User: Fold this.
Amino acid sequence: MNDDGTALKDQTIGRVTVLFGARGGKYPHGNSLLVAGSEETVLIDPSLSIAPRHSALLRVDRVLNSHCHEDHIAGNHLFPDAPWHLHAADVAGIHSLDNMMAIYGYPEPIHSGFRKIVVDQFHFTARPDAVAFHDGDVFDLGGMRLRVIHAPGHTRGHCIFHIEPDDVVYLGDIDLSSFGPYYGDAWSSLADFERTLQEVRRLDARWYATFHHIGVLDGRAAFLERLDRFAAVIQTRRQRLLDFLATPRTLDEIVAHRFVYRPQDDVPFASAVERRSMTQHIEQLLGDGRVREVEPGRYIARAV
Ligand SMILES: [Zn+2]
Assistant:
């Protein structure tokens, strides 16, 4: 059920079913994919919206997670008997709650508050026997194949999946949203995300599905149009930072100004995300010579 009492929607593409989350898959919800081969059925990224559908899902043989973030693993606990699979670079996160929290790397008191949310609201359940997959691995479900494409940046082990023969690419949190790319965790990397955005431009598929908001796009032209707008948010943040650094600023001033979230966004971990994200931008711009440090901890844009 959605908040307004309407039923959650599904979209079927061949043997792939997109299980749309409540509120169109807006965080904390998300869209999960059910892929049914003749031998096995796989559920990708069980969201919070899987719980109300759980009894209707006849069979789930494996759970695959595109990466280890709270909203993507929120329904994993409903499938305790199925193996859980994540990329080798993220799988440690599901092995223990301490590991999971290391992915975010938030300072106190954000850490303790969010740790409780991850357990209470997202049902984090440690699975020490979760299995690692790697770039290029193929899950053969019987007449359906699911190929792993490592696409790091959002997290170290973030992956997308190409599902054939229905030709669906599941993009996880390369979510093509107007918010733009998220690289605000300890295990995020702006540089990796920018490389990944270049790589995914080459993907050629009929259908493109994301975990949040967008849902399913039909055709590569629609995908590229959204991808370019999504990627451009990084450049907008970078330019806004350069404009802000017309006069010398400290990192605290940059964090308070907000470049990732809007000032009115009430997000408990906003300051940690701003700090991690904008530190990476500053480092990149120092490396490019577009910003210099006028004195320790104070930065100014170089005149061009
Ligand atoms: Zn994520």
In short: Helices lie at 92-95, 97-104, 110-120, 190-200, 220-244, 251-257, 270-288. The longest helix spans residues 220-244. The mean pLDDT is 95.
